[in-house]
Structures are given as C-alpha cells and as structure tokens.
Specification:
Blueprint lengths: L4 H8 L18 E4 L1 H4 L10 H6 L1 H7 L3 E4 L3 E2 L11 E5 L6 H13 L3 E7 L8 H8 L11 E2 L20 E4 L4 E4 L14 H17 L3 E5 L16 H17 L4 E4 L5 H4 L11 E3 L3 H11 L3 H8 L9 E5 L6 E2 L5 H11 L6 E2 L2 E2 L3 H4 L4 H13 L3 E5 L57 H6 L4 H13 L2 H5 L1 E4 L7 E8 L2 E8 L5 E5 L8 E4 L4 E2 L8 E5 L4 E7 L13 E4 L5 H4 L3 H12 L11 E11 L8 E9 L5 E10 L1 H10 L4 E7 L9 E4 L5 H12 L3 E3 L4 E6 L1 H8 L24 E5 L8 E7 L1
Parallel strand pairs: 1-2, 1-16, 2-5, 5-9, 9-10, 10-11, 11-12, 12-16, 25-29
Antiparallel strand pairs: 3-4, 6-8, 7-8, 13-15, 14-15, 17-18, 18-19, 19-24, 20-23, 21-22, 21-24, 26-27, 27-28, 28-30, 29-30, 31-32, 32-34, 33-34
Helix pairs in contact: 7-8, 10-11, 10-12, 14-16
Bound molecules: alpha-D-glucopyranose.
Alpha-D-glucopyranose (GLC) binds next to loops.
Length: 777
C-alpha cells in the first residue's frame, strides 16, 4: 500500500491541537511500546531513530494502535538501554534531535496517535554533569543532589533489584571519597529527593517535554524515589506526596496527558500510586502478567482469578496497564518461590534464559511459536480490565536471541521485510546496533511485517482485527468485571459490562477440547453474538448455558437484547471531532466505521443488503481538492459474515450552517451523520457529513480531475483521471467546457462503486464522451 504523508499535510492538515478534549482517552487506548534504537533506521547508520518511527507511522495507524510508548530517547551512554540518562533535555544523537521528536509528535497526532515516553526520575547516569559536579567536592552545590554516605550500611532493608550484577545498593566513589546509593546498576546513582532543588528540577524536566507535545510519561522505577532508615525504601509516603505534586502540575498546565507508573509491586501497594484519582492515571499490573503465563501452562484459570480477586478496585479516572512482554525480562518478583520455580521450569529451560528474577524472552519463543497459544494470551490481555500494551515485534511473533547479553536479546531490530537487515536499515549488516534474528524459526525472511501484511491469515492481521474489534466496545476499556466460575477450571469465563454493553469472554486454557456450563441466568433472553463473525448463538435460557471449546479457543460474545434495540437514523448518528471532520479519517476512524454500516444499508446502490457486515474499515482516502476539510473519496472495506469482502468508494464531504440545513432538508438520504466540532466554536455546529455526489461543486471538481487527467494521491490510494478521445475533443474545442450535469443521488453508477472505478458516462452534453477516475491502492 502506498501512502503519501506529505501530500496530506498540504491538502488535509490544519495546525494546532488534533484531539478533542478527552481526559480519559487512556482508558480505551491500545499502547504500543517502541525501542527507538530497534524500530527503523532512517539514515543508514545502523541504529533506529525518531525519523524512522515517523516514517513508520502509517504502519502503526494501519495496525490501529492509539498511543506509542517510547523507551528513553534522551542523551545517554546506553549502558542500560537509555535508562541511564546523561542529559534530560537532549535526545541521544543516534536517535535524532528535539526537532525530530517534535515532528514525530505532530505527525503522530495528525493520525490520531498519542505518544508518551519513559521518564527516569529515580536516577541518572554517572555521566550526568549533575553527578560529576556532585562527586567533585563535598562543597559542591550539587553534592546533595545524590545520596552520599560514609558507610555502606544504611538502608540495609532495601532489596537489591539487579541481583545478577550488583551485590550492594551502595558503591564507593574514589573521587567523592564516599559511597553513593543506587537501586539499579552502579552506574545509575539515585537522585536525592530530600533535596527540594531536585524535586523542582525534575518538574522542570517534565514540563519541558510536555510543552513539546508529549502526551505523558511512563514514570520509570517510581517506588524508589525516597529512602527512610528502617524501611525497605519502597512506596514511601514521601514518594506518593511528590507524585501527587507531579500530577497537580500536569493537571494544571497540561490536561489530557497521562502518567503511567512502573511500580513492580503487589496490587495492594500499587493501588496507592493511583491515590484518590489524584496521583498516577495508570499503573502496570505486574503480578497479573506471569499469572497469565502460569494459567496457560497449568491449564487452570485460578491464578488469573485469584490475583484479580486480590486486586482492590481503583478510582474511576484510573486504569491498569496490562502487558505480556516488554523490553525487560519477564519479571518474577511478584510470585511465590514455588511459582517462580514453576515458571523457570516451564519457560526458561535453558539457564541462559534467566536474568535477575526473571526470564529474558519474547512472547513467541516463550510459547514455542504456538499460534493458538499466542492468540489466546493476547486475547486474554485484550479482554481483562486495563489498557493493553503491545511490545514492538510481538504482533508478528518476532523471536529473540539468548546469546546476546543482558536484555538485548529482546531488543533486536524490528523485522520489516525479507530484505537485508530485515528491512530495518540499509547499513552494512556489521554496523547494526544488534544483529537481526536469523534463528531458523523466526528468521526475518519468514517473520516480517511485509509478508504478514500480504497474508490476511497472518498473526499481524489477526492482531489488527483484535484491536479493531476491541475498539468497538467500551466495555473492554471501561467495563466492570464479573467472573462466572464454571466448574471446569480449564475454562476462564467472565463478563465485562459498561452501560448497555455486555461482553462475555470464554477462554479454553487447555490444549484439549473442553466443555463448560456457564451460569448466564442474569442475561436470560439475550442472544450471545460471536464478535469476530457476528454469528448469533441460541438465546440464553433459564438453564446454565452449555459451551464446547476447541483446544486453546477463545470467544468474545456480545450479549444482545433482540427487538428492543433503537433503530439508528441520521439524526441519532452523531460524530464528534475536535475541529475538522477530516480527523475522522486521519485519526481514530472507529466512530465513522461504526456509523457506516447503517448508512450504507440505506443506500440504493449498496449491493450487499442481504449480507451482514462483520467489520467495516476505512482503508484510505484521497482528497479531491487542495482545500483543507474539502471533499474526499474514501475507501471502505467491508467484510461479511459470509462471502467475499468488498471495497466501496464513498465520496464524503462536510457542510455546516445553512448548507447543512439545506442538505438535511433536500437530500436527507445523502447524510451519513451529524458532526459536532467540540473545539471549534467559530464554526456553526452541528454540521453534516454527507455524500456530495449530487452537488455541483463536487461534480465539477471530479470532472476537472478527470478531464485534466490528474493523479490525486491520498492515504493508501491514488486516483487517476482518464478520458476517451471524444471527451478530450469536446474539452479542447474552443467553445468548450462541457457543463457537468450533477448526478442524481439515486443514480447507481457514481457512488455505486462495488469496484474502484468511477465512471462518468453521459456526464457531458456530448453523448458518447466518457471519463473515469480509477483508484488504485
Ligand atoms: C526500569 C526499566 C529497566 C531499567 C530500570 C532501571 O525497570 O524498565 O529497563 O533497567 O528501570 O532504570
């Protein structure tokens, strides 16, 4: 698929804020974690960079992710993947510049994608000038910015985190003539949060990046900011008080941003990071993660059920971050010793796979490349309460390399294609920051984005569909959770509920076929509709519902009440945008995709009236004029519960004020939905989104494109105009420009575009003159 981002800027873009104010956006978001060094190399130096990510935004948009999480991209000697920062206000030169980040943010926002980044508050690199100054003399003004001591015996109750490399949290510094405190590597001295200057300075760092447009931070290693003798120096009240101050600053100056806490703690401790909804917006659920793997191998839903039962409820404006894998080892700190032994025995058969208290492997190798198991865990991840976080490369089932040190084996270059360096870089292969995966099972020649984009049965397409499906129901992000506890414990069953949405999730954790009786009496009379294919199952009766599940199968059902559902009409279809309707195409298209099936079904030219669309996707669009907010030809892909998918070309435009009233009055059948712009008080609201085929200006613009044989480029498609000689002759005649007759809305050959060609026969006064616009992807 070709895309032309630059053209988009010219014709479609408007400056400014791209999002409607939506303080709870993160509750429905799908996050995607990117190691900048490993994603895409735009300048052939063997290292991924920010421009590389910008170049790959089309891919991320196509996949459907809502928010990118960037691993630290700051200046750093990279002894700990960038978590060892040597300047908080600079970008690592291999990754680009602050301007490159600003450009990435702008381009991502334009596509409706937000971006957060890691912020390491707890420590710096020893290379940071603050530390160099601090160690230089006891009288240095920065001396007190770090935690110094004459002995290495203080805070003896604090555990060591990197047990494989460190034997103490204190390291002797011969320059300072004192010991300094560090919770992680010895080259990462902890900042001293007792010092008000440090506290203020870190707020300034935060503001600097938020001002640039970042949508928030993953707050790295937050439990360890303060130290207190006689405690384990984790989760201290002082730490929470400081985080509340951070939140206040963010809320006051930068609404709609998010703070995501990395607190690898038990649920009863983590929930304090939410405060009363006035601390972090999100926190990772670390203990749940290994239990999903455990449940799968033990073929028993108990570990998942138990940990979630033990998880206290959280304030309504907060959300869990859920993940299966990330850039670190699969940490086993939050399990019992027996459970840890079990996990090692099952998932780290080779001792090289262990690191600290964890397992340094990616998702696919952990599950022996078993597609059904990968899908199963991913589906669990996407259906439990929280926002799922995907780790780059896991969507294609990338492998890892245990022969590389530390956590590098899970941070290898993204596999884009079968080309040299997996399409990641055009550098000499020996220059890459890490070698690409060539293990036969995960070799980039077989496991890569390009190959999987071409195969609709690939894992990548499956993940994309899963994301799309999740977005159609708010219950996944915001719904309550109710376990159904069938007697067969190999089957995990629960309901997610939000308003009138009820999603029933059933998961067979066993490698064998299972049956389960599920008590659905609360939903008596409702019809379970399987979401992937929109197939009705028999209505729920008074008796327990009986399900048979094939090995490692999972089902998502919407429990729907039949007959009582309100009929959607134009007036009840309303789309909300921040400023311009084009956000519906460039950003999150879910809203538009949701209203289209009902609209299409009402169109005379729509050929598939008897078939039920299982999914509706905006596949791309082409602006017809250079005017921002002008009409566009959009391409809508419909997949049905039966038969072949179809691609429709649907012209769309927006009208406001009197023009909107006129269209609603005179051509109600052309109205797709009302549009309300929430951040554009200067425009009359609501407008209407409609099919402009019957409008003179649209006809003229399209005719003009055809007769001039223009090539119009857009997202994913290109439209080219072609004419017959007769039409050109007519056009060339001195008396010439034929007057285009507006097409009637009911005519079925204009917008009845079962194919991707738009014909204009009989369009001109010259009877046999013909022109057409052909769209290609
Ligand atoms: C966090 C990061 C990890 C890093 C550590 C020290 O746990 O996820 O990668 O090594 O902090 O900064």
């Amino acid at each position: 698929m070709t895309t032309h981002a630059d053209d988009q800027v010219e014709v479609g873009a408007e400056p400014g804020h791209w999002f409607e104010s939506e303080p709870l956006w993160f509750k429905r978001a799908v996050f995607y974690e990117i190691h900048t060094r490993g994603f895409f190399d735009s300048n052939d130096d063997g290292s991924g960079d920010l421009r590389g990510i910008t170049e790959k935004l089309d891919y991320l948009q196509w996949l459907g992710v809502d928010c990118i999480w960037l691993l630290p991209m700051y200046a750093s000697p990279l002894r700990d993947g960038g978590y060892d920062i040597s300047s908080f206000a600079d970008i690592h030169p291999d990754y680009g510049s602050v301007d490159d980040l600003a450009a990435l943010l702008e381009a991502a926002h334009r596509r409706g994608i937000r971006v957060i980044a890691d912020l390491v508050m707890n420590h710096t690199s020893v290379d940071h000038p603050w530390f160099q100054e601090s160690r230089s003399s006891p009288d240095s003004p920065k001396r007190d910015w770090y935690v110094w001591s004459d002995t290495d015996e203080c805070y003896a109750d604090a555990r060591i985190i990197f047990v494989d490399t460190e034997s103490s949290n204190w390291t002797w510094d011969p320059v300072a003539g004192a010991y300094y405190w560090h919770r992680f590597f010895a080259h990462q001295p902890d900042l001293n949060y007792e010092n008000p200057e440090v506290r203020d300075e870190m707020l300034a760092v935060l503001r600097f990046w938020l001002e640039l447009g970042l949508d928030g931070f993953r707050l790295d290693a937050v439990p360890y900011l303060f130290e207190r003798e006689g405690t384990n120096c984790e989760n201290l009240l002082e730490t929470h008080a400081y985080l509340k101050r951070v939140r206040e600053e963010v809320d006051t100056l930068y609404p709609d941003r998010v703070l995501l806490a990395e607190a690898n703690q038990w649920p009863s401790d983590v929930v304090h990071y939410f405060g009363d909804g006035d601390e972090c917006h999100m926190a990772f659920h670390f203990p749940l993660m290994p239990r999903m793997f455990m449940a799968l191998r033990r073929e028993d839903a108990t570990p998942i059920g138990e940990i979630l039962e033990q998880t206290p409820s959280i304030p309504g404006n907060c959300q869990w971050g859920l993940f299966l894998r990330n850039h670190d080892e699969l940490t086993l700190e939050m399990v019992t010793d027996d459970e840890r032994d079990y996990m090692y025995a099952e998932y780290a058969k080779d001792p090289r796979m262990k690191l600290n208290l964890g397992i340094r492997r990616r998702l696919a190798p952990l599950l022996d490349h078993g597609r059904a198991e990968i899908e199963l865990l991913t589906a669990i991840l996407f259906s439990l309460p929280g926002s799922p976080v995907l780790y780059y490369g896991d969507e294609i089932g990338m492998g890892d390399n245990v022969w590389l040190g530390d956590r590098n084996g899970v941070r290898t270059p993204m596999q884009w294609s079968a080309d040299r360096n997996a399409g990641f870089s055009r550098a000499n292969p020996q220059r890459l920051y890490l070698p690409v995966i060539i293990d036969s099972e995960y070799h980039h020649q077989a496991v890569n984005v390009e190959a999987q984009q071409h195969n609709r049965h690939s894992m990548l397409w499956w993940v994309k569909r899963l994301i799309g499906l999740r977005k159609q129901y708010r219950a996944f992000g915001q719904g309550s959770l109710e376990f159904l506890l069938p007697e067969n414990r190999k089957v995990l069953a629960f309901v997610r509920r939000f308003d009138d949405e009820r999603i029933l999730v059933l998961v067979n954790l066993s490698r064998f076929t299972q049956c389960a009786e599920v008590d659905l009496t609360d939903y008596e009379g409702m019809v379970p509709v399987e979401l992937f294919g929109r197939q009705d199952f028999p209505a729920v009766g008074a008796a327990p519902y009986f399900f048979t599940l094939s090995p490692h199968a999972f089902y998502w059902f919407a429990l729907e009440r039949r007959g009582a559902e309100p009929v959607e009409t134009t007036t009840t279809r309303e789309l909300r945008v921040a400023r311009s309707w084009t956000e519906l195409l460039e950003g999150d298209a879910t809203g538009l995709e949701r209203v289209l099936p009902a609209y299409l079904a009402s169109c005379r030219w729509f050929g598939a009236k008897s078939r039920r669309p299982a999914s509706t996707q905006i596949a791309g669009d082409v602006p017809l004029t250079r005017e921002p907010g002008g009409p566009r030809l959009t391409y809508v892909r419909l997949e049905y519960t039966e038969g072949e998918p179809e691609l429709y070309q649907l012209p769309l435009a927006e009208a406001r004020g009197e023009a909107a009233d006129r269209i609603e009055r005179e051509r109600p059948e052309a109205v797709v939905a009302r549009v309300r712009a929430t951040e554009a008080p200067e425009v009359e609201a609501p407008g209407v989104l409609y099919d402009p085929s019957g409008e003179r200006e649209f006809s003229e613009a399209l005719f003009d494109a055809i007769v001039r044989r223009r090539r119009l480029r857009g997202r994913g498609f290109e439209v080219s105009g072609t004419t017959t000689r007769a039409l050109r002759d007519l056009w060339n005649r001195a008396d010439g420009v034929p007057e285009p007759a507006p097409l009637r809305a009911e005519q079925s050959n204009t917008s009845g575009l079962g194919a991707t060609r738009t014909w204009f026969r009989g369009w001109t006064r010259g009877a046999r003159a013909t022109g057409w616009a052909r769209a290609s992807s």
